[in-house]
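Let's sit down with a protein and look at its sequence and fold side by side. We need material for that, and I hope you will provide a protein of your own picking. Once you have written the record down, we can walk along the chain together.

***
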Amino acid sequence: MLAAVALISVLNISQVNVKANSVIDTTDTTEHVVGELSIEDELANEEKYNLAKEYVENKRQLYGYNSSKVLYFPYERQTAGNWCGPAAAYNAIIGANPSYKGKISQNSLAMTLKTGVPGDKGTDFPGEWKRTMNNYLGANNYEISKGSSYSYSDWRNRVKNSVIWTVDKGYAVIADTKQSPYGTKLHPNYNYIDDRGPGGKPTYHYIAITGYDDTPGNDRMLYSDSHQDFNGRYWTYTTNVAKVTHGHGIVW
């Protein structure tokens, strides 16, 4: 657990890599299939979530709601507009197990995740996510949680508990997000989406969540963003994460 002074310092961190005079990449409107979970996967996710919920409740009884943890995972820039999925997977895998560096790449993960070639379709959800992440980080026993299966308030709690459980174990959570014009954004960097106007195409984007701050009324999450124009580490409110993933889901 971080000391109070250290926490204040960490919360101000925003490591960013923005291309000078860049034009925002519009290929982030590439869609992907959001499918259904099998009954087996639903049951496995529920079993794991019950453990996570109990863990977080016990932790709060011991330490209160002010716990936090940050994993300084990579934020490698995605090499294609539709490869945010492989990039998020790469950042999550290399961050948890650096020994994979040089052995995997966005290209190899794109093939494993069955992401389209550059300029083609994105990475389907749940698709090959569970198999891919457990192939490299099986100790975390990754499961899929689909937001549309729950009310928003329930989903927010599930995202929060799932992130705390996963990050405390030293792993990242993959989040499948959808950000629409004039809707909730992960970060002001995404305000360019509003330029598409009412009814404009949303941005579909995978990120790797690598930290949290459980301060009541100000709870936040840290994520590694592979976006081609502003890859970096960013803090955002838990509410934002819950809203932009509610129609899709998380791999935790």
Summary: Helices lie at 4-11, 39-63, 84-96, 106-113, 129-137, 152-168, 238-245.
